[in-house]
Amino acid sequence: MRFTRSHLMLSCLLTTGLMLSACSKSDSDSAKKQETLTATNTATGEASTVSERNAEQRLINTLQQNFKTAGINAKIIGIKATEVPKLYWVSLEGMSSVYATSDGKYLVQGDVIRLGGKELQSISDNLQSEDNKKHFAKLKIEDLLVYPAKGKTQHVVYVFTDASCPYCHKLHEHIPEINAAGIEVRYIAWPRGEQFMPAMESVWCSADRQTAFDQAIAGTPLPPATCKNPVRDQYQMGLNMGVNGTPAIYSEDGLYLGGYLTPDELKKRLNN
User: Fold this and answer.
1) Which is it for the CA torsion 132, 134, 135, 139, positive or negative?
2) Is-catalytic flag, 165?
3) What are phi and psi for residue 23, nearest 5 degrees?
4) Considering 23, 131, 186, 192, which one is annotated as catalytic?
5) H or E element that contains 27
6) What is the average pLDDT score of the chain?
7) 23, 131, 162, 205: which one is catalytic?
8) Catalytic residue, candidates 23, 131, 168, 186
9) Cα–chain-centroid distance for residue 40?
10) Rounded-to-integer distance, Cα 250 and Cα 173, Å
11) Mean pLDDT on 59-79
């Protein structure tokens, strides 16, 4: 596979394809988003020493120059060294993260597996979940649509959702059963295209978001949004995490659990 000038292939190459248990992002909206991505010289890192920070900044500069040469519009929003020598984890705005060699000449797509134990360990899952957890920590509870657990809260899950998505409807039907199992559900707005943005903004501007979300799912027209709301910011956060469909369910620790899951499947994954 190779990059082309007309389309930034990173997001589709790095995403192995939407699970059949999720509603896909609008293709036209995705293409529009890709066209707006621009390279930048600013990115955050977590290097602990000056020399490490300098090495990371050199890598950022090299990657951005190589992106520019290849006609790729990609914004680097984070970079960190991995446990694999000379291999870095690179976070890109609006698409899945990639690995890059320390010389900036090679990108590695997909997973990196650690051997040596009885079970295979995914390096990528750990790195991505760390990033996701930081994103979740920045969210304000009042900016979410929350369904508290019944009784003692045993788990908290974050769910990127869209009122127009049939699989989100299916998951939403199980909310009482999920809550009864001690699982708190925190919905994050993630309209899959610009055409779905107004409905989600109307939900988030409603005094009773739960009722408004139920109405939106049922296809009931809602009053236009008249408040300052976090829907677009939440949508962008999802893009930065590599979300490409709904529902997208994550644990409180940032681990991706899956698309649509039955209550039993969700409990099993949370308790593993």
Assistant:
1) positive
2) yes
3) -90, 130
4) 192
5) helix 27-36
6) 86
7) 162
8) 168
9) 21
10) 18
11) 92
- Among this protein's residues, is 131 annotated catalytic? no
Asked if 91 and 79 touch (Cβ cutoff 8 Å), the reply is: yes
pLDDT tens digits, residue range 8-62? 444 444 444 444 577 877 654 544 444 333 333 344 445 558 888 888 999 999 9
Amino acid at position 77, single letter: I
Q: What is the CATH number of the domain that holds 160?
A: 3.40.30.10
Q: What is the DSSP string of 61-73?
A: HHHHHHHHHTT--
DSSP secondary structure, 200-215, as one string: HHHHHHSSSHHHHHHH
Same domain as 252, residue 219: yes
Cis peptide before 247 (omega within 30 of 0): yes
Cα angle 159, 34, 230; round to 5? 40
Considering 165, 208, 214, 227, which one is annotated as catalytic?
165
Other residues' Cβ atoms within 10 Å of the Cβ of residue 49: 8
| Residue 5 designated active-site | no
Q: Assess if residue 86 is contained within a domain.
A: yes
pTM: 0.77
Residue 171 confidence (pLDDT): 98
**Tokens coding 237:** 């956060």
Domain that holds residue 172: 143-271
- 81: in domain: yes
SS3 content of the chain, % helix, strand, coil (to 5): 40, 20, 40
At residue 26, the pLDDT reads: 64
